[in-house]
UniProtKB/TrEMBL annotation:
Name the record gives this protein: DUF1735 domain-containing protein
Signal peptide (from-to): 1-21
Record keywords, A-Z: Signal
Source organism phylogeny: Bacteria, Pseudomonadati, Bacteroidota, Chitinophagia, Chitinophagales
């Protein structure tokens, strides 16, 4: 009897020890702890292609249908021609959900919202190091579209207001406008980095400044791709591929649009989300923009799947 009791006691002690050890174990490496993790692990992923410069010209097709043709002699590293194997790394941002999940936006550097025809990040590495961003020979990019007319070309700048993101003109002399041909915007582009086909959001309405507070913000306002901060505020235009990020500070836990940049009368959805210490928060509000609008978004704790569902739903909004 004593032996039985001792055995039971040993099992209980071992179970307690195991449970304590299990609770003390570090979280899995793929567990999302903050907004930066969310962008890297749940957002649009890098697509990689490796080939030899001897095989140039070479065309790669991304999952969303974007085609990129790399010509011979395009790559240099520190001004010297690159030979041997290179690895292309690309991220496609064709939908509103992809822009939001990537921590990117459609802000023009002037503050006016852009309407996106598709954007991407493009890098090429040799020996594990990025080649020169300015290409010796431009690449050819084919961006699928479902509309007619023209688009304009932009490059991304991630030093706006210190560490925020917006789109600006490509370098002087580069191609600026592209006409659709057989449902494709095809153009030559001489720079690596963030590439965008956008037009200015076609709203002739009077413009105003919008302010949005997040009174129960669990962290701080996030910058480009959440390199710092946890909390985003976006305005998503109804029926248009517009993802305007509000990031200009305007008091504690409050941001505003660029001054006189938001069209009065436009319909859309304000969203805010934050991930901090492994907890998820989300808020949304459908609005019609009014003059000098001030809004408050109160975050509610939720789940990763719920946040992803809400962001994915923006594509049909």
């Amino acid at each position: 009897m004593k032996t039985t009791k001792l055995f039971v006691t040993m099992i209980a002690a071992a179970s307690c020890f195991y449970a304590c050890k299990k609770n003390d174990a570090p979280p899995p490496e793929d567990q999302i702890k903050n907004t930066r993790d969310f962008i890297e692990k749940a957002g649009p992923q890098i697509q990689s292609f490796t080939f030899s410069t001897a095989d140039l010209p070479k065309t790669v097709t991304l999952k969303g249908g974007v085609k990129i043709t790399f010509p011979a002699g395009a790559f240099q590293q520190n001004g010297e021609a690159v030979t041997g194997n290179v690895t292309v790394e690309a991220i496609e941002l064709l939908k509103r959900s992809q822009l939001v999940m990537a921590g990117v936006n459609t802000n023009h550097i002037s503050g006016m919202p852009l309407q996106s025809d598709g954007s991407l990040f493009l890098d090429v590495k040799s020996g594990g190091q990025s080649v020169d961003a300015e290409l010796k020979v431009p690449v050819r990019i084919e961006m699928p579209t479902d509309r007619d007319g023209f688009t304009q070309l932009w490059i991304g700048a991630d030093t706006v207001q210190g560490n925020q993101f917006a789109w600006q003109n490509p370098r002087q002399g580069a191609q600026r406008e592209v006409k659709v041909d057989n449902f494709v915007f095809a153009f030559d582009f001489g720079e690596l980095g963030w590439v965008n086909c956008d037009i200015f959001w076609n709203m002739s309405n009077p413009k105003t400044t919008m302010k949005v507070s997040v009174p129960n913000n669990p962290g701080t306002m996030a910058n480009f791709r959440a390199m710092e901060g946890e909390t985003y505020v976006f305005f998503i235009a109804k029926g248009d591929n517009v993802v305007a990020q509000l990031y200009t500070p305007d008091g504690e836990n409050q941001v505003k649009s660029y001054d006189n940049a938001m069209p009065v009368g436009a319909e859309g959805r304000l969203i805010s989300f934050s991930i901090k210490d492994g907890k998820y928060y989300f808020a949304k509000k459908d609005i019609t923009i009014t003059e000098n609008q001030v809004e408050a978004l109160t975050l509610a704790e939720t789940t990763e799947s719920a946040v992803q569902t809400e962001i994915t739903a923006l594509d049909g909004f």
